[in-house]
Amino acid sequence: MTNQKPRDVQVLPIGIDTTVLRSRSWTRLRFEIEYALARGTTANSYLIRADKIALIDPPGETFTQIYLAALQQRYDLELLDYVILGHVNPNRAVTLKTLLEIAPQITFVCSNPGAINLRAALPDHNLQIIVVRGEETLDLGNGHYLQFIPTPNPRFPDQLCTYDPQTEILYTDKLFGAHICGDQVFDEGWEVFSEDRRYYYDCLMAPHARQVETALDKLSELPVRLYATGHGPLVRYALIELTQAYQTWSQQQTELDTTVALLYASAYGNTATLAQAIAHGITKAGVGVESINCEFAEPEEIRTAVEKSSGFIIGSPTLGGHAPTPIQTALGIVLSTATNNKLAGVFGSFGWSGEAIDLIEGKLKDAGYRFGFETLRVKFKPTDVTLKLCEEAGTDFAQTLKKAKKVKASRQPATNVEQAVGRIIGSLCIVTARQGDVSSAMLASWVSQATFNPPGLTVAVAKDRAVESLMYSGGQFVLNILAEGKHLGLMKHFLKPFSPAEDRFTGIATQIADNNSPILSDALAYLECSVTNRMECGDHWVVYATIDNGKLLQTDALTAVHYRKSGNHY
Questions:
Q1: What is the CATH number of domain 8-253?
Q2: Does the domain spanning 416-562 belong to CATH 3.40.50.300?
C-alpha cells in the first residue's frame, strides 16, 4: 500500500490584496454522498488584506491546526476584523473558536439562518455578527467594497455568496465546486474536471435545481472573472462553460413532469445526509425532486410541493423520543393534503431511539398510503453502505412512480429503423464492481471492443443502474462474459429486481479479482477493467475502460449473444 500524502495548506495570491489558502486532503473526509468518488478534497479559504482584513470561509476542524499555522506564519491574526461565512455548520466551530481566542474583536458576517447556527455552535461566546438579510455591502477600504448575495437552498439554507468588484472575484461557497484534490489552484485544462463537477452537481445541487436557477439569476449581472469556490480548483478557464452547464442541468431537472416532495429536518446533519443520498437516487432515475428543509420552509411551500408531486418522502431525527416540531407540522400538512394514492416513504436517523420514524410510518400506514421502499432507520452516522442503500431506495421509489405513470399504449409494430437497430448483436455479460464495502452488478449486452492498444472496451450503462456510481473514471470493474448454453441461470439471477443494498452475489460462485471486484466462477471468460473515460449519451452513460488482466475460463464454449427484434428496448 502506498503512503498517502499528508494534509497541507497551499497558499497563493489570486488578486489585489487577495490570497487563497487551500487546505488539502488527498483522501475523502466524510461519509457523504458527494465524496463517493474518493478523490480527496480541498477546503478553500480566502484572505482580503485591505484597510480592514477579512477572512472568508475558514475550514472545518479536520484542518484547524495546519490551517491556522499557515495563516500565522504569514499574517498577524490579531489584526483580523471580519470572518465571512458562506455557510455555517458545527464542523467549523473548533476553527472559529480558536480564531476568537486569538482575535476576540472579530465580527462575523453571515446570513440570518447562519447567525442562528453560529450562536448554537459557539454558545459560550458573546458574538459580534453582521446579519445579511438581503443584498447588503461591507466596505473594507482600498476599493474592496464587498457585496453579499444570499443564495439559499434546502440543504444549505444559510448559503451566502460574496462579490468583490475590485478584483471581480465571486466567492461562491458550495456553488461550482468539486471534491478533488490536486496541485492545480486554477482549472486550466478544465475538461479533466468536468466529470467531478458534474458528479458534485448531481449530488448536491440537482435536488435543489429551482433554487440553483434563482441563484444563477441573482449572480448573472455581476462582471465576474473568477469563481472562488469552496472546494476544488478555482474556476477561471471554464467560467462560461460551467455557468452554462449549471443552467442546462438545472433546467433539465425543473422541466421533469414527475416529481417527489422530499421533506426533512436534521438535528446533527445525519438526516440531511440521508436525504441527499435518497435525492441523488431519485434524480438518477430521471424524476425530479422538490427538496424541502422543514425547519426553514413555510407551510404553504410544503403544501404546494406535496400537491404537485407524484409521491412524497419524510425524513426525521428523533429528539427526546419525538419528531421535531417542523416535522410534526409537515406530517399534518401531508395528511391533510396528499391523497393516499400518492407513493410514500419514511427515513430517519437517531442516537439511542427511533420513535419519530415509527410515529411517521404508523400515521401514514393508518392513512392508507402505499410505501415505495422499506422504512430506513439509521443509527448514528451513516456509512458508505448505508448511503448506497439510500441511493438505491431513491431510485426504486422513482422507478415505481415512472411505471405507474406510463400509459399503456396499444402494441405497434416496430418501425423499420427499430427493426434494423434491433439486429445489432452484443455478447451477454455481467458487470461486477466493488469499492470498499459497496458492491453491485448488472447484466450487460451493449458491450464492444473499442481499442487494440491499449486493449479497451466500451459498455453502455443506464443512468439508473445501481452499479453506475461505481463506474466513474478511476474506478475498476470486472466484465464477466457468459457461455452459450450455460448463461440462463446467471442471466435470470442478475435480471431479477434486487432490494436496496441487497447482496447481488448471494448463492453465486465467485472469486475475487486483483482489482477487488467479483469474478463469476461459471463465466466463459473475464476481463479486469479500469475506467478511463465516460460520455453522457441520452439515457445511458457510455463507459470506456482499458483492460488490465483477464482469462478464458472455458476453452471449448462459445459466447452467449443477445438477439433482439426491436431497438427500443433491451
A1: 3.60.15.10
A2: no
Q: What is the pLDDT of residue 3?
A: 57
Inter-CA distances, 314 with 302, 336, 364, Å = 11, 15, 10
The DSSP result for 298-337, as a single string, is -HHHHHHHHHH-SEEEEEEE-BTTB--HHHHHHHHHHHHH
Residue 381 phi/psi, 5-degree rounding, is -80, 135
Q: pLDDT by residue (tens digit) across 131-174?
A: 999 889 999 999 999 999 999 999 999 999 999 999 999 999 99
What number of CA atoms fall less than 13 Å from residue 427's CA on the CB side?
21
Q: Tell whether the model's pLDDT for residue 410 goes beyond 60.
A: no
CATH class for the domain made up of 256-404: alpha beta
Residue spans of the domains in the chain: they are 8-253, 256-404, 416-562
Q: What are the tens digits of pLDDT across the range 511-562?
A: 999 999 999 999 999 999 999 999 999 999 999 999 999 999 999 999 999 9
Residue 118, phi-psi category: left (phi > 0), alpha (psi -120 to 50), beta (remainder): alpha
Closest listed residue to residue 242, CA positions, set 190, 174, 188: 190
